[in-house]
Amino acid sequence: MNALETQDCLIAAGDVRDGPVGMVHAIRPSAMGELDAVVGEVAARFARQAGFAARYGQVHLLPGADGTITTALLGIAEQADGTDPFVFGALPDSLPAGSWRVSAPADVQAADIALGFCLGAYRMPAFGRDAAPAAPAARLVVDAGGQAAAGMARCINLARSLINTPPNLMGPDDLARAAEMALAPLGADVSVIRGVRLAQEFPTVLHVGAGSDRAPCVVEAHWQGSTATETAPLVSLVGKGVCFDTGGYDLKPPSSMLRMKKDMGGAAIMLALARLVMLRDLPVRLELRLGCVENSVSGHAMRPSDVVRTRAGLTVEIGNTDAEGRLVLCDLLHAACERQPDLLVDAATLTGAARVALGPDVPAVFSNHDGTAGVFVAAGLACGDPLWQLPLWPGYRKWLRSPVADMNNISSKPMAGAITAALFLENFVKTDVRWVHIDTYGWNDSARPGRPEGGESLGLRAVYEGMLKIFNIEDRLHH
Q1: Dist. CA 96–CA 13, nearest whole Å
Q2: Full-model pTM
Q3: Is residue 141 a part of any domain in this protein?
Q4: Distance CA 134, CA 98 (A)
Q5: How far is CA 169 from CA 120, 172, 177, 427, in A?
Q6: Which member of 28, 48, 101, 252 is catalytic?
Q7: Residue 332 to residue 237: CA distance in whole angstroms
């Protein structure tokens, strides 16, 4: 399924023409006693005897009197704070071909059902001789709210597909072209900065990419909503697009390098978020900056103990060439701050330390404005895309000192790696700019309902919903 094409796993209610429409009943474990009333005594007894217990993501098909299957059961989580669209991702691969509706408890939103269904129907790009796995034949019947969720799913699946693309097919130029293809048709002014101009404006991006035959570049995009005035909020998005990270001279071990095609996950997520803002035509002014680069080993690669001068004029000693992401981001953040945005958000697959602290499913969020961080955390919990705040602890700033430069790109201590990385970035953000930094994993280690193994857009929906709340924007399509 191409993430930029029509989400063909959905069908509008008015377009259903032929054949019966099946019904999926979403059941919580606590409602198993009501199963007789939902599907009838005989069918309920059959389901229980077959082992249906409404476990999370459990799908059970109920045959009718003629042997056809037009009824199914889906186990969902007990009522809790926030939403969980992912459980409905178990349906596309479990239901027979045809059109289906979902009956769910009143507190489950139709948009979450449609979103989860679309996310479960996602197929990773295939590059082998054999055909790609067929898209699920089951389709979900939706109303207008459900159709709007397809736009969100397309953006999430765009990020997934970019991250999943093999690194030989997703170099800096490929990522830049993907950004142009995603944004230019929606009216964005997209430019790609290379060569001499890159050296002048983004010297640290150039320094990181110096070791690769695939030259680095920076994508800049500018867009304004159709109802946005010149005084509308300016939102600036920044993404780390390291298309492959060997670690440079501080070479990663083979096991750590296997997934390094995902090191451009921050750029993929910010690109997908920018596309979503444009599709929803939010009343904002939007800027996007992506640092597209490859961290390789060669005679031209950056070395440990190099000193590089940043766009901001600060000098950085390279303590470790595998801490390249913060070097990619620092010039982009400084460039964004020159425009004095009302909100600056960056995303990056930045540190293993964040994963040690919070695991793969919960990105770490840092902010120079605690109230803003709180909005993002609350929004993430409410939409089922959790974030968790870690502190910009000032006591650790001295760990980044260098005897030969203004700072080192790594800490002198083997602790708090996610915090010290964020503190490094803070040096390049104006104190009066509201800034949010997201350290995300960008990957699903194993397949779960609605979350196939591979690239993932962790943090995208949380940032989008947080943005709506910060600027008090009503997203009519979504809500």
Answers
A1: 19
A2: 0.95
A3: no
A4: 15
A5: 25, 10, 12, 34
A6: 252
A7: 10
311 and 391 housed in the same domain: yes
Select which of 123, 326, 434, 461 is catalytic: 326
Specify whether the backbone of 31 is left (phi greater than 0), alpha (psi in -120 to 50) or beta.
alpha
291: β partners: 218, 240
What total of structural domains would you count in the chain? 2
The H or E element spanning position 70 is strand 69-75
Residue with the two structure tokens 């298309």:
243
Element (H, E) at 26: strand 21-27
Q: What is the pLDDT along the chain (479 residues), one digit of tens a residue?
A: 344 343 578 888 778 877 789 999 999 999 999 999 999 999 999 999 999 999 999 999 999 888 889 999 999 999 765 678 999 999 999 999 999 999 999 999 999 999 999 999 998 888 876 656 667 789 999 987 777 888 999 999 999 999 999 999 999 999 999 999 999 999 999 999 999 999 999 999 999 999 999 999 999 999 999 999 999 999 999 999 999 999 999 999 999 999 999 999 999 999 999 999 999 999 999 999 999 999 999 999 999 999 999 999 999 999 999 999 999 999 999 999 999 999 999 999 999 999 999 999 999 999 999 899 999 999 999 999 999 999 999 999 999 999 999 999 999 999 999 999 999 999 999 999 999 999 999 999 999 999 999 999 999 999 999 999 999 998 755 54
CA-CA-CA-CA dihedral for 315, 321, 327, 329, to nearest 10: -170
What residues make up the domain containing 339? Answer: 165-471
Total number of residues shown for the chain: 479
Residue at 150 is within a domain: no
Q: Give Rg (Cα) of the chain.
A: 24
Torsion sign over Cα 172, 173, 174, 177: positive
- Within this chain, do residues 113 and 171 fall inside the same structural domain, yes or no? no
Task: Check if 326 is active-site.
Answer: yes
160 part of a folded domain: no
CA dihedral 133, 138, 142, 146 (to 10 degrees): -30
